[in-house]
């Protein structure tokens, strides 16, 4: 290489470094693996609207639903790792699917983990006129007549279904799972008394809880919820090892630049902890879950390991 070629190469290299250091120089795409209008989409748009002010660039939400989040997850995994494509990955994407499906079009371990976003508390609910007023009463009834009680869910492999499965395993009860195509019809049949119980997400259940259409026996997170201060936790009801909730975070394709990840990690955490965003999220019945990139990766790995045991013990497969 002569001096002219060396200078040319050096100039291009410096130009590339300068361009990289200026990230982001254009819009960032945020892939959401669910349809527009749902809880995950609302969280993404709420956070993105605030985060783009910090980044100084527009964040474009791109909905890619289907395949149990695999379509959206695969789009993220295949994207160029330059920081201009990131996306939501949830408990299904990162913790459940590897055990539910024999093969996946993405590898959860190969994402670039950026940070935690939110968790969706679940509640153990029964119809308003249910004879069961405590978790213990429900467990006793389930043990007295195995297979008589029924529980609805948003579908096989959903957080609602797997929460039920974990509950059954811990309490050694036989409760019949009744899957629906979505949380809304599952909740409606609970309200109507067609099923006996449901592990529902707080966000979609809250209006019906406040209207007195369902009774909540316990919450499935470690602490009592501010929105339901009088409702005990599972531990307080004697099911001490039971914790189950849906959660999500932000990931990107493998190999994203470290400085880009660090900036997103820092800005995302600050955005989630700001009053404007945290209050909007909490009003939806959802809790912010700020985590660093390293914390979110470790958390996801542990969740994947824990739920694999539940899924295997329940012999649950989706293909």
Automatic annotation (TrEMBL):
Pfam families according to UniProt: TctC
| Keyword Phosphoprotein listed | no
What are the boundaries of the signal sequence? Answer: 1-21
What keywords tag this UniProt record? Receptor, Signal
Similarity section: Belongs to the UPF0065 (bug) family.
The molecule here is called Putative Bug-like extracytoplasmic solute binding receptor, TTT family
């Amino acid at each position: 290489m002569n001096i002219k070629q060396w200078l040319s190469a050096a100039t291009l290299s410096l130009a590339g470094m300068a361009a990289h250091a200026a990230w982001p120089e254009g819009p960032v795409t945020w892939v959401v693996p669910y349809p527009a209008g749902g809880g995950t989409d609302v969280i993404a748009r709420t956070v993105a609207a605030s985060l783009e002010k910090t980044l100084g660039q527009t964040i474009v939400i791109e909905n890619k639903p289907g395949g149990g989040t695999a379509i959206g997850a695969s789009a993220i995994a295949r994207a160029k790792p330059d920081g201009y494509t990131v996306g939501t990955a949830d408990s299904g994407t990162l913790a459940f699917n590897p055990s539910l499906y024999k093969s996946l079009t993405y590898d959860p371990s190969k994402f670039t983990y950026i940070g935690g976003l939110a968790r969706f508390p679940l509640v153990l609910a029964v119809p308003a006129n249910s004879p069961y007023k405590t978790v213990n009463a429900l467990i006793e009834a389930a043990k007295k007549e195995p297979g008589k009680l029924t529980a609805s869910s948003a579908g096989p492999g959903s957080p609602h279904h797997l929460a039920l499965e974990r509950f059954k395993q811990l309490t050694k009860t036989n409760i019949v799972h009744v899957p629906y195509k979505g949380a809304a019809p599952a909740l409606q049949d609970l309200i109507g008394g067609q099923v006996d119980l449901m592990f529902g997400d707080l966000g979609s259940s809250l209006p019906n809880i406040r209207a007195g259409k369902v009774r909540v026996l316990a919450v499935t997170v470690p602490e009592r919820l501010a929105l339901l201060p009088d409702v005990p936790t599972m531990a307080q009801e004697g099911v001490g090892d039971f914790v189950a909730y849906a959660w999500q975070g932000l990931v990107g394709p493998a190999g994203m630049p470290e400085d880009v990840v660090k900036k997103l990690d820092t800005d995302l955490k600050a955005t989630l902890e700001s009053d404007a965003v945290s209050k909007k999220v909490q009003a939806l019945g959802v809790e912010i879950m700020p985590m660093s990139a390293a914390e979110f990766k470790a958390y996801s790995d542990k969740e994947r390991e824990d739920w694999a045991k539940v899924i295997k013990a329940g012999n649950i497969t989706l293909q």
